[in-house]
Amino acid sequence: MSFILIAVTIGLVAQATAPVAPATPPAALLSKENMALIRCSAAFALVSFGQENGNADEQKWPAIDPRGREFFVRALAQVMDDTGMERDAVAGIVQAEAQRLLDEAQVDAVMPACLTMLEASGV
Prior knowledge:
Layout: H1 3-17, H2 32-52, H3 67-83, H4 87-103, H5 107-121
């Protein structure tokens, strides 16, 4: 199962079962480091999905799996640990970030920094 499908599925479940929105949006609670982890996790999910489905635009990047998948898991666990946020809240933020990257055509712009982050992570 691809990253984006997992993120979308988790996000849809979170939206369907979410209580009334908190006064402070969860993304506002994230540090710059946590937002970078979220951004790169979303970018890796999108590129992985594209690579799995033969999208020529995504083939220009190094193969994302399995390292990108492990980064995704570790990054989201770190965000949950750092913030105390529930899995559903973090998944919703990842889903929103993935959508933003698509809507603003920013995947190619963030991937070089994300690949550097992946290398530095030791995954």
